[in-house]
Structure formats: structure tokens, C-alpha cells
Fold this protein.
Amino acid sequence: MSAPILTVTHLSASIAGQQVVEDVSFEVPATGITAMLGRNGVGKTSTMRAVLGLISRKGKVLLAGERIDGLPTHRIVQRGVGYGPEDREVFATLTVAENLALAERDSKPRREFVAELFPDLMARRSQLAGTLSGGQQQMVSVARALLNDNRILLVDEPTKGLAPKIVGDVARALQEAAKIVPILLVEQNLDVVRALADGAIVIAGGCVVHTGKARDILDDDALTTRLLGVSAEVHS
Amino acid sequence: MSSIVLILLTGVGLGALYFLVASGLSLIYGLMHVLNFAHGAFLTLSAFIGWQVAQALGTASWGSFVVSILVGAAVGALFATLTELVLIRPLYERHIEQVLVTVGLSFAAVALFEGIWGTDAVNIAGPAWLKETTEILGARIPNTYWVLMLAAALVLVALVLFLKKTRYGMIIRAGVENRAMVTALGIDVRRSFTLVFAIGGAAAGIGGVLAMHYTTFVSAHLGATLLIFAFIVTVIGGLGSLTGAAIASVLVAVLQQFANVYLSGTGDFIVVVLLAVVLLVRPTGLMGRKA
């Protein structure tokens, strides 16, 4: 097994003095999609934001063996950590083209790859991102992370609030993306997790309580119900 | 009819002056969430230095007038840049301390200016045309107002082009909307902070030199007097919105002029009432975005 691309050790984080991540340790392999699962409010989004330095944090974070926990957010991203945040966070008053241009860091950004993956966005380049549908905004969010030669993508609830057809489109885009870059995915839609994820990390009470293959967790209904509070029956 | 034209156009001219001060305030708050109380000091220093340059070159010539404006812009930009680098940056993300340090700087600057240039207002002079008037629909409009309008229009166009057509402009627009997400794209947003301070300082510097010609004097308190109305304009326009600042500048100044003439000199009071109404009815201002 190859060395992990991301290693998180004893990570804790707080927002305005309130502890939101207790003591999280996990590894993300250098290939495929790893799902971060857990009930609402257990600290999945906060863990991602803590890895990126967007919230105050303590602990050790290694990217391909190099410590990044002491770096400011923009330096962490420059080292190759792409981010697709929860609720998309596209710049509503900027056009699609401006949103994408702002994200370009590399001298040769992957414009063709993104254009092939999201042809609909290319047709809407001059449209203000705030006027796009939720699914289209999600595509902008993922496209921003894919433009650069990142070493890992942190993607937070990409299918949240989307129509079933759009969920499929976003899942397919992530599947394509995973062929060129490993992804740490926070996702509540277990059908999507089943379709995409290789490994899974389960968080409860601000700590990692289970790691393993995603399918093994989702196939064990008792385990899924205990860890996630929901049944993982396939809905297709 | 002529009196209405006079009030309207002098209102627009005064609004142009407010905009020159408010544009920087609005951008600085929008991007950095810092209410910059030192903005008036940028304006005052630019006016004093601009006046000294004009005196050295000969106050009556247009050349010295233009050079004094350019020097004012440069002084404002330099003072603002140093303020951001030395006082604001070390207090990154500590908004209350940042505001307090600008308050302290504004007091210290006034004391310093009084120490250098004295406590009395200094009467100034400029090209003779500025003291003349131009007749429009029977109203005799002081020429200073045309210069104010032209300068504000040029600054507005330059700012809009900068914000729309350059990468830094794009970063600033995005940062006003969601600063954390800009950093999450790998961009060091703090570089833009210095730039926004410099741009705001330059606009205030131009405003300082022109305010001096508008009032025909310069004093250590010139900036503080204008800053109050610039803050009101910034809040009414919507913190962070350049377009809002432009619209609110004209709206506030025209209303102020009309109230001064038709409501027994209550212009300042009416402006404060307008501020209260906007805060009650539309707290984000005319063009502001919800937090």
C-alpha cells in the first residue's frame, strides 16, 4: 500500500472558543475517494476546515509527509490542497469565468479537462454565478478545485440540496476527478458514498470511531445504523 | 427654477466630494471589515502637502493645481499604505483593535498637523477660474463644483475599470463577498488589503486637495469634518459597495442642500434622519449585501 497523501494526527479545532473537533486522527490514501461519514453536527465540516486552517486548530497535519498545520490557508492550498466547500460558496457577484479564473494557480491550468467535464458551465461563462442553479454552482465549486494540479481535494457535501438527476451528474464528475486526484469526501447521501468511495472514516462526538472500506460499513446495516443513525439500504 | 438647478448641481458637486472620501472607506470596510477612522487624516495631510506644492509652483497656474492633486493622491496612498502595513496588519483579524488604532491615529494626526501647520485655518488660492461661476439654466454654479464632479467621475470610472478588468480587482470583489473562500483558493488576500488602503488613500488625497479648494482653506480638522458625512454615505450606500457609495453620496448631498435652503438649514439633521431610516428599514444599505 502506498504512503497516505494526508495524515491527520490528534487534530482538535475550535470556533469562537467552542471546541468543534475533539481529537481526530486518520489517513487518506493517495488514490481514490475516501468518505468522511457521521451524523449531522459531529464535526466533519469543521475537520475539513481545520485541515485547511480556516478555523483555529491544534494537532499534526501532513501532506505527502510534509507538515502543513503551521501554514496559513493560502499556503496550504498552494501546496496542492483543493477545496470544494459545503454550500458551494461561489462568488455570486462574479461571472462563472471570473470564478474559474480566480481559482487558477498553475501556469497551465486544466481548462480543457474542466470544459469536457462541465460543458454546461462553459456555455454560461458570462453568467453571474449567483444566478446559477444549485447544481451548476456545485459544478463551479468542483471545477475550481480541478483546474489546478492538486495533490488532494477536500469536497464537502457536494450533493446537498440537489435534485436526484443533478446528484448523478455531480457524482460522475467526482468519479472522473478521482482518476487524477485523491478525494476526501464528506457526504450524507449514502448511495453516492456507495457508488464512489473506496475507504471511509466515521466521526462521532468529535473523534474518529471507525475506519475501513466504505462498502463494508454500508453493507453492515447494524453498524451503519449505530454509527450514522440511518439505514444504508440501496435506494436505486 | 434657477435656484433648484443651483441647489441640485451644488448638491451633486458636494456629493462628488463625499464620494472621493467614501469610496475608499467602503472598499476598506467591505474587504477588511475595518472602519477606518484615520481616513480623514489621509485627506488632511494630502491637502496640506498639496497646498505646499501648489505654493512652490505658483498657486494661480493650472499646472500647479493638477500637480498638487497628483501629489495629494500620492501622499494619501503612501500614508494609507504605511498605516496598513505598520498598524493594521499586525492586528490581523482583531477588528476592534484595528478600529481603535485608527481612532488613535486620527487624534494623533490632528495634533501633529496642528503642531506643524498651526491651529488656525490657512486660506488658500488656486487658478482664477475656480473662483468664477458658470451659468446653467439661469443658475450660477461655482466652477469648483465642476472640478469636483469631473474628479469623482474619473475616480469612479478608474475604480470600476480596475475592479472589473484586473486580477487584483477581481480578488477584491471576491474578497468583499467571501474573504475566507478567496484564501481557500490559494490567494494571499492580505496583499489586497494594502492595495485597497492605498487606493482608498489616493482617492481621499484627491478629495483632500479638492476639499481645500471647495472650502478655500485648509486646517488640521478638514478631514474630520468630511469623514462624518463620508461614513454616513458609506453606511447608506451599503458597506463594501462602490456603486452604493456613489449613489448615496449624491443622494445625501442633494438632500442636505435642499434641506439647508428650504428647511431652515437643517441639512445635517436631515442626513442623520435619513441614516436612521435606512438603518431601520434596510440595515444593509441601498446596495449592501446581507452578512
Observations:
- The mean pLDDT of chain B is 93.
